[in-house]
Amino acid sequence: MPMQQSPAPDPRGPGRPAARSGAGSHSPAGTGTALPRTVRIGYGLGSLATGAFGTVPGLILLYYLTDVLAVPAAVAGAAVFLPKAWDVLINPLVGAAADRSRAHSGSRRPFLLAGALTLPPLFALIFAAPPLHGTVAAGYVSVLFLLAATAYAVFQVPYVTMPAEMTEDPGERGRVLGWRVGFLGVAILLSGALAPAVAHADGDTPAGYRAMGVLVAGFLAAGMLGAWRATRHAPVVARSAAEGSLRAQLAAARDNRAFAHLAGMWTVQALAVGVMLAGAQYFATYVLGSASAVTPLFACMIGPLILVTPLWNRLARARGAEYAQWCASVLFTAAAVLLFATRYTHLAVGYVAVALVGVAYAGLQLLPLTLLAQTQSADAARTGRRRAATFTGVWTAAETLAMATGPAVFALVLAATGFRSSDADEEVAQPAAALTGIASGMSLLPALLSLSALWLLRRYGQESARLAREVPRGEPGDAAPAADSAAVAAVTESLSPDPDRTQEERRRAP
Q1: How far is residue 101's CA from residue 326's CA, in Å, rounded to a whole number?
Q2: Backbone φ, ψ for residue 333 (5° rounding)
Q3: Separation between Cα atoms, residue 109 and residue 42, nearest integer Å
Q4: pTM for this structure?
Q5: Angle at the Cα of 397 (from 157 to 50), degrees rounded to 5?
Q6: Closest to 229 in 3D by CA, of 4, 418, 390, 39
């Protein structure tokens, strides 16, 4: 697909008229152009869906299979993994299809609507709990989960690409990102706390899971349809072009070794979180002694997400996003190791450790996105091509695969340690080896994965420095670190009580 160049800067400078609103409109956007508040907030609503769909299946789907539908652990792991692995193929293809679309309402929004109309009913059907057990039940869930994952990809890939096309101002893009991260934290906290509570309300019965499926489906629909409707007035100032085939997209990602290492770090980090998320319900039931304990456990993990995000922003501004990422990763590793001590000390240790994981998780969600924006900016300066759609397609596919692999890996730990599956009407005693497997799979395994992510982060820093030396002086890439700082500052502003004030207004304020 031919590359589409961004418009040349307006010689009138930052005081030129704002970008024309409306889907499909193209106009330059400078540092003085602000998006309507309704667009920024409305775009963030989409994260209600991405947060809920990324959280609920990873938190309770494996447990639903092994402890409600009596599916053996290894089979349950495959039923969760295979549908999400499909996203590795479908995500980049959706990105390319969205680039080629020239629908009247805009190149991205029709995909948002298609995903919004299909994902919620499919999600409800996953947890419909028909009178099936064992391998047959696993097949039913796997097919519906595959269809739901496809519908999610249709929404998510265009959704994450849109901010780069709404504005070329890094500060304004940061404010959009701030609303997205804020809604993401709300979605993860609400869905992760409420979904298990509703599912366990009747004692892990199929009826409880049906009610939970319908509730979360409504939550998904509200976020997805809200984002689709609110972005109808969003300007389009530039388009990113994805490569025409999956092979070409992966080749483009490999060509930028800094992005390859950053995406690798993000993948391993997401895998660590996915393993821990999959183990949370088992940890609550078999280590803390109560299935309902997963709700306060999850609240301890996700609660800090909104509270400490501005602190991670402040650290990133003061010392750089890469340094802040190191701090978040080290804290996550140490907290995961501390979590293992719960069985041998006191239950309070587990809650404290999970709260520390939550503090680290806030940084692990925000900081890689900041590094990704910096990497994309540097790549555009080095190659002269806008490849944000290519990189985000590969990025989201890698994250989805990692989050799907997490439950599968935890299921393998269960199978290897002799975990015994059961249905909702049967309660079985687990062997000591299985209890140890649950505790270590929730703590030590994520810690080891986090350590490997630190090595990839180090390699990312080395490659970023090398590629920066290849950009001639005076090219746009020289401003990438400054743009990164502006984006981080803007995220903090967007989380403040008055997000509509521009950075210039804040500088002039007494």
Answers
A1: 39
A2: -60, -45
A3: 13
A4: 0.73
A5: 50
A6: 39
The tens digit of pLDDT for each residue in 4-62 reads 333 333 333 333 333 434 444 444 444 446 778 778 888 888 899 998 998 899 889 99
Tokens 């940084």 -> residue: 363
Residue 505 has pLDDT above 90, yes or no: no
Q: Is 167 in contact with 173 (CB distance < 8 Å)?
A: yes
251: number of Cβ within 10 Å? 12
Q: Which candidate, 326, 334, 341, places its Cα nearest to that of 356?
A: 334
- Crossing angle for the helix pair 257-286 and 347-383, nearest 10 degrees? 160
What the block records as the tokens of 63 is 């447990």
The answer to whether the CB of 337 falls within 8 A of the CB of 272 is: no
Query: CB under 8 Å to 21, separation ≥6 — which residues?
Result: 36, 233, 234, 235
**What CA–CA distance (Å, rounded) separates 259 from 460?**
7
Structure token digits, residue 449: 């994965």
Is residue 357 within 8 A of residue 339, CB to CB? The reply is yes
Of 81, 82, 72, 64, nearest to 128 by C-alpha is: 64
Bridge partners of residue 423, in order along the sequence:
69
Answer whether residue 482 shows pLDDT above 60: no
Measured CA to CA, the distance from residue 343 to residue 442 in angstroms comes to 12
3-state secondary structure of 314: helix
**CA–CA dist 209, 188 (Å, integer):** 18
Give the tokens for residue 476.
Answer: 């746009």
Q: Could you tell me which of 202, 386, 162 has the C-alpha nearest to residue 292?
A: 202
Q: What is the pLDDT of residues 166-182, one digit of tens each?
A: 766 767 777 777 778 77
Task: Report the C-alpha gap between 284 and 67 in whole angstroms.
Answer: 13
HEC readout, 53-77? HHHHHHHHHHHHHHHCECCCHHHHH
- Give the pair of three-digit tokens for residue 56: 């609920």
Question: Would you say 155 and 119 are in contact if contact means Cβ atoms under 8 Å apart?
Answer: yes
Instruction: Give the number of other CB atoms < 10 A from CB of residue 208.
Output: 21
170/147 Cα distance (integer angstroms): 36
Q: Choose among 67, 49, 52: nearest CA to 200.
A: 67
120 vs 108, higher pLDDT: 120
Cα–Cα distances (Å) from 122 to 106, 118, 153, 346, in that order, read 26, 7, 13, 41
Q: CA torsion angle for 174, 179, 180, 186 (degrees, to 10)?
A: 150
The rounded distance, in Å, linking the Cα atoms of 104 and 9 is: 26
Inter-CA distances, 132 with 23, 213, 424, Å: 46, 17, 12
Q: How far apart are CA 72 and CA 66, in angstroms?
A: 6
Tell me the C-alpha distance between 196 and 52, whole Å: 12
Residues 6+ apart with CB under 8 A from 364: 269, 273, 325, 328, 329, 332
C-beta separation of 44 from 182 below 8 A: yes
Nearby residues of 411 by Cβ (< 8 Å), 6 or more positions away:
62, 66, 73, 74, 76, 77, 78, 80, 278
